[in-house]
Amino acid sequence: MDTEYIADGGHYTEVLSLIAGIKQSLWIATADIKDLHIMKGSVSVPFLGELAALVQRGVSVRLMHAKEPGPIFREEFDRYPVLFTGMERVLCPRIHFKMMIFDMRQVYLGSANLTGAGIGMKGKTTRNFEAGILTTDMSLVASAIEHFDSVWRGSHCKACGRRRYCSDPIL
């Protein structure tokens, strides 16, 4: 696979299915984040549990999101103490891009937030209409890594025109 167009339910079947094969790193950027569940075998499990399992295996997990998640997400997050110290997290109110970088070799770029209706396991008639690409094209992967990392390291913070809305400045 070089580059594949992903639509609607393909976000769940084609993108989230890659989580199980992560070996070294997973970087996620999303504007919105909610309590998301995925199927593991025949059982629905919290996505945060899968992230916790990655952290326990020594995988580096970075998560950037634009706003504080709601109470259901926070309650679920608290069930996985390994995420408190084992997962790196940045809050930036300017983030609107949706991106997942898998082992620095493959990237998803698209419209789907990290929510049930966006990238999760909602049904055909209840999910959002979403569009994106999944690619192993290294020029696109490298550009996505640099874009993600520039926000992560706070390259835009000093000149940010929205700093007064930032509850937890990176710099």
How does this structure look, described?
A 7-stranded mixed beta sheet has the order 1-9-8-7-2-5-6, sandwiched between helices. Strands 3-4 form a two-stranded antiparallel sheet. By secondary structure, the chain is of the alpha+beta class. The protein has one domain: Endonuclease Chain A (Endonuclease, Chain A, 2-Layer Sandwich). The termini are far apart. The chain has helices at 10-15, 47-56, 71-77, 82-86, 138-152; strands at 3-7, 25-30, 37-40, 43-46, 60-65, 87-91, 98-102, 106-110, 131-135.
List the helices and strands and how they pair.
Elements: E1 3-7, H1 10-15, E2 25-30, E3 37-40, E4 43-46, H2 47-56, E5 60-65, H3 71-77, H4 82-86, E6 87-91, E7 98-102, E8 106-110, E9 131-135, H5 138-152
Parallel strand pairs: 2-5, 5-6
Antiparallel strand pairs: 1-9, 2-7, 3-4, 7-8, 8-9
Mean residue pLDDT: 92
Mind summarizing the main beta sheet?
Answer: 7 strands, mixed
- CATH-defined fold name: Endonuclease, Chain A
Give the oligomeric state of the chains in this entry, treating copies of one chain as homo and distinct chains as hetero: single chain
Please give the order of strands in the largest beta sheet: 1-9-8-7-2-5-6
